[in-house]
Design goal:
single chain, alpha/beta, five-stranded mixed β-barrel
């Protein structure tokens, strides 16, 4: 026979456990809702980003930038392990000195290398070239395992590998070239999850919170009922 004094302890533990899940679901839903607002603002900023021709000020994130200058071919490096349409390769990274003397990093697009680990090689136009693409500001990178640079290959996109040989770049970011001289297959797209996805996640979390509330109430009712029946039986 279960003692009635044991029921309140079980009821208390039951309610605490499910209340924590309810609060967690509500909190995560609100967090996703706020993320949706942030993404709407980010998309609005990107859509309103200007088109800049040979800018001397740092472009806004998402700006379409047109540059005119000279590729510094001897300083080309390659962003490793890019995949385009199932093909394995690298992205070509070449500094460019514009007509104002500013130093830019240009991501020139994808070339296929397959599984070969031989140093990649590309042809680079000589003399003054014109190139256009989308500007991406440098942000904190993800987790890096091991060193970033292995020969001419980079594991993460960064300005640091050129600092020792060229000094600082004029602007903290890089141009993802889409057209112009020396541009290969464009592969990069801004990783901006649509707000609707975050809203979907928010409603999923709130749905789980609602389900947890129902389970908590039904289970609590059953524990109370069992406690009363045990009291009657014991009497």
């Amino acid at each position: 026979m279960i003692k009635s004094s044991y029921i309140p302890v079980r009821l208390y533990a039951w309610c605490v456990f499910w209340s924590v899940l309810v609060v967690l679901g509500l909190f995560l839903g609100l967090w996703q809702w706020e993320r949706a607002d942030d993404k709407r603002e980010l998309l609005a900023i990107r859509e309103s980003a200007p088109t800049l021709v040979e800018p001397t000020q740092t472009p806004e994130e998402g700006s379409e930038v047109h540059l005119r200058g000279i590729y510094l071919d001897q300083h080309t490096l390659y962003l490793d392990n890019r995949i385009v349409e199932g093909r394995l390769g690298v992205a070509v990274l070449t500094p460019l000195r514009d007509t104002e003397g500013q130093l830019w990093l240009v991501q020139r697009g994808f070339i296929e290398t397959g599984a070969s680990r031989a140093p990649p090689s590309v042809s680079t136009p000589q003399g003054v070239v014109e190139v256009s693409g989308e500007w991406q500001a440098a942000h904190a990178r993800g987790q890096l395992y091991g060193i970033n640079q292995e020969g001419v290959r980079l594991q993460q996109l960064s300005l640091d590998p050129w600092t020792a040989s060229l000094g600082s770049f004029s602007h903290d970011g890089w141009l993802h070239a889409e057209s112009g001289s020396g541009v290969f297959i464009p592969w990069w797209e801004a990783n901006v999850m649509p707000p609707s996805r975050h809203l979907g996640y928010a409603f999923q979390w709130w749905g789980l919170a609602l389900a947890a509330s129902v389970i908590m109430l039904l289970g609590g009712y059953r524990l109370v009922k069992d406690g009363r029946e045990n009291d009657i039986g014991g009497f």
